[in-house]
């Protein structure tokens, strides 16, 4: 599959991969918030960021600490891990990787072991700056995949440039049940969300096995080596 300079929107069956239901159930049982696009209404003001998030802060809010309890596999502390309900999010994600291998890439994938969760609260950012993942040590062989579990429109979705270094950032609008695949050489980021709802998404990186090389570099946030068994699974 050649995705050079491309942004592709794909579709999947939400009955087979019920990501939104898993997030809704988690938000309902942890915050009493059954409609997860209203997450911002269920977080106390003093637990919300009081300024626009920057790089280094955009994975570390109270809302992230709640959302990452969606699956015990995100938890490193065995005590917390044992208390976190398994809603099969990661198991569903792993099945989704199988779907991408069989229906999209027609090849085995090396894939990010645990996808990154994004929360785009009203009047804030979900990602601190426009970037290419390679700016943070990611291998250039990676292909980015972005999956919203709410609607993703206007200022509440990912903004992409249309070709390398074009800098013409524009929103890529995606419905629940759709996903984006994009060339990791394209810069992307987001704008302050003025849509009045919380956008939640997850994203991850894959490398077709034929293109995978072991990297000595590590991720900046979690200090994981970009290798199978550490940052990646296979
Ligand atoms: Fe990125």
UniProtKB/TrEMBL annotation:
Q: Which SUPFAM superfamilies match?
A: Clavaminate synthase-like
Which domain of life does this protein belong to?
A: Bacteria
Q: Which organism is it from?
A: Nostoc favosum CHAB5714
Recorded protein name is 2OG-Fe(II) oxygenase
């Amino acid at each position: 599959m050649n995705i050079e300079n491309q942004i592709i929107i794909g579709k999947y069956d939400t009955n087979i991969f019920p990501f939104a239901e898993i997030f809704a159930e988690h938000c309902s049982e942890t915050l009493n918030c059954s409609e997860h696009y209203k997450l911002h209404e269920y977080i106390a003001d003093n637990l919300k960021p009081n300024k626009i998030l920057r790089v280094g802060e955009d994975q570390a809010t109270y809302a992230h600490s709640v959302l990452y309890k969606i699956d015990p596999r995100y938890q490193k502390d065995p005590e917390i891990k044992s208390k976190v309900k398994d809603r099969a999010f990661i198991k569903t994600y792993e099945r989704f990787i199988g779907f991408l291998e069989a229906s999209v890439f027609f090849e085995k994938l090396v894939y990010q072991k645990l996808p990154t969760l994004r929360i785009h609260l009203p009047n804030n950012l979900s990602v601190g700056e426009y970037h290419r993942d390679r700016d943070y040590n990611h291998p250039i062989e990676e292909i980015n995949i972005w999956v919203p579990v709410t609607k993703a429109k206007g200022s509440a979705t990912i903004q992409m440039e249309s070709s390398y270094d074009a800098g013409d950032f524009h929103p890529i609008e995606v419905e629940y049940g759709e996903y984006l695949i994009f060339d990791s050489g394209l810069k992307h980021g987001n704008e302050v969300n003025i849509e009045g709802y919380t956008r939640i998404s997850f994203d991850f990186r894959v490398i077709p096995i034929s293109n995978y090389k072991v990297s000595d570099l590590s991720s900046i946030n979690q200090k994981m080596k970009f290798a199978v068994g550490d940052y990646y699974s296979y």
